[in-house]
Sequence to fold (909 residues):
Amino acid sequence: MANWIVLLVAFASVNLSLSVRELEYSTPQSCKELKQTYKITQDGLYYLSTPSGVVYQTYCDMTTAGGGWTLVASVHENNLYGKCTTGDRWSSQQGGSPNVPEGDGSWSNTVTFGTAEAATSDDFKNPGYYGIRAEDVAVWHVPNNELVGRWKLTSFLRYHTETKFLNNYGGNLYNLFKQFPVKYNVGSCPANHGPSVPVVYDVGSATSNHNLYGPNIRANSVPGFITFRAINAERAAMAICSGVKPTGCNNEHCCIGGGGHFPEQSPRQCGDFTSFDWNGYGANTEWSASKQITEAAVLIFYR
Amino acid sequence: MANWIVLLVAFASVNLSLSVRELEYSTPQSCKELKQTYKITQDGLYYLSTPSGVVYQTYCDMTTAGGGWTLVASVHENNLYGKCTTGDRWSSQQGGSPNVPEGDGSWSNTVTFGTAEAATSDDFKNPGYYGIRAEDVAVWHVPNNELVGRWKLTSFLRYHTETKFLNNYGGNLYNLFKQFPVKYNVGSCPANHGPSVPVVYDVGSATSNHNLYGPNIRANSVPGFITFRAINAERAAMAICSGVKPTGCNNEHCCIGGGGHFPEQSPRQCGDFTSFDWNGYGANTEWSASKQITEAAVLIFYR
Amino acid sequence: MANWIVLLVAFASVNLSLSVRELEYSTPQSCKELKQTYKITQDGLYYLSTPSGVVYQTYCDMTTAGGGWTLVASVHENNLYGKCTTGDRWSSQQGGSPNVPEGDGSWSNTVTFGTAEAATSDDFKNPGYYGIRAEDVAVWHVPNNELVGRWKLTSFLRYHTETKFLNNYGGNLYNLFKQFPVKYNVGSCPANHGPSVPVVYDVGSATSNHNLYGPNIRANSVPGFITFRAINAERAAMAICSGVKPTGCNNEHCCIGGGGHFPEQSPRQCGDFTSFDWNGYGANTEWSASKQITEAAVLIFYR
Fold:
């Protein structure tokens, strides 16, 4: 059955062309579908297709909390000393100017980059990020340059949501961030923060999660949530506060991704990991995050 | 079972590679072939192959003026304030120095980048750009960040050639630009301009096309043509003047793409959309282009 | 016939998902396997798979010294005047700061970039670089922007190893460079150089190879070897000294690739082709390399 369907797809995609609509009903489009329809239960790299027939390969977590999690993106800090320079694809590669308030715009466009195998060594975004209709997200913090087979072993923080919150925001982060643009000066802190969703920990805990950030930001946030589109005191926008809900407005010390402009000492807070190094690289004192979280990629999954 | 399937891959990839010449006559290599040989009539994303067996996916326009148009490239201005910086793949990412007269060289090399689905959000170039042998070109101006399904609806300017001019220039733009290098200081204005080819409008008109540029450049150009490899007063080279034939030499205000060096107030005119902002971003006064054309990607098709 | 084959490819590639482990023993994973198991003897582009099921296309040299050589990477200098700027993927795109001692880290991570067809026009690295288990390497110096079909014709220097040295270093350069990091300040010259392996010339000779470098560096090196992870007087690290074994410590004039920081007149020696232009671009006097080697891509093969 599965093979027969796949045969149709192959015929459609290479010999080109049954319509997009027909493809929609014939190729696995998520790890969840692979698990439910094709009974795949092994973690690893799989080929998926978008409704428009784009075939891509990504990692599926088939075991955590029921499995069926599709890796759609990773946020990797290639150089925390480079402030919105080459490699800052989740914020800006344009230098941090107010002329580019949205930066590269990756959070709400269809541009893709990187590969699943290199997801801990480079920024990664696949067509599933905008093409999959999902309900929940999972996040893994995996040390940089780890091989796929070791991600589960070496990840020091892993959590997922269970509220099906994405149903209220268009079914994926692409649509969520269309509603909550990651753009400088679109709103103020705390009035215009996006949703904070409670999380369930698979590796680590609210406490260990909180301790990855500097003591000053711990005093200005609550662990156990994932927050989307936070804003700081200077109206800079950030995409994701991993594992925390901000209660203050210096959120550039616990949130990742962002628009293209961070006014305070610009461009010092601009970059994929924003201002994790404010009081020293990996210092984990005052506002600085720990070396552990600074040197780990943030993998984002859908289900 | 899986072993059996995998053996098929082995067998197939061997033969696929073996029969480069066979593939030339058996796998669709253009949307024109898809339409004529496979009778496909629906616009959308399709898989094509190059003569060398590179498989890629792109968009086919199967309906305009007989259909069979293959999307091979898009020129997208990611940051008009960045002058030959990251993202200026159709001019230079090297800063605008005379040491790099050809810039990134994308107009006449085989480097590819981007994806069809993101063609209005990022620069795009597929193997069809150099691998397809075509006769005519079509150009669409589509607002940035539009989804594939809305390109036709939202494009405000669309035209095509009907003269089969590419037969005289090697069958594609890759070969045309080998004859007319997009390189600083290879010639003078107007003596060494490349061909200007009359166009037929599918959306918009010569007048609406002309009005997208600043009044000063309107006085120095004639609409209703597409011009290749224009040169300006300072011997900078540009790739395409969309919808116009220059009659003066300040062509950096109506032409896109370019070499790596623009002498006048260097690098102020250097970038994928050259000097569309000379008298203000989107101002559409004096030499400045309109906001509409400044914030739209230029999609290039072959047939 | 060919359509049927293409159909099998796609059929199988979607099904690759079904089994990662079984793939290890069934899909061609190198040009050597294509030659030995499938009796392919024609040079050209072929599809291969990694043990993890990543399918990619690359060039196979099926004839030199028994054939079965897989192209896994190319080092291309896009702008020798740009010192560790955009396009320096085999050194650093981050500007040459001591804060990024490993630069982009491409020599020992799984990030991939470029395409086989554009291997002489852009940096190239495919999954074979880290996924293939090989014994020997071959290196070709091919003029920039040459088409695949002309590489053999136009290459002016080609050599290979026959010692099976990779068996001692993990079977590929990815693992070799894990043992010998291409990173600033990991060791001193000459104490901590990596292996120098004797080579056999297929095109050119030890003498013609030597003459491609400046006279001063000729006096400080011996031709007829390929050297990995050389270090210079200021403790900067370089990846490959093509065709030579350094006997001095100014190795930035005959080695390519590198970490992110070169202390001497920083960043003047930082880049994919390090300091080939120290006494003038292409001058081939004092420490400067010839124009011929400066404007040629370095293609790296495994067998």
Q: What stands out?
A: Residues 31-302 of chain A form one domain. Chain A has one domain: 31-302. The interface with chain B takes residues 3, 13-17, 19-20, 50, 52-54, 86, 93-95, 97, 99-100, 104-105, 109-112, 127 of chain A (CB under 8 Å).
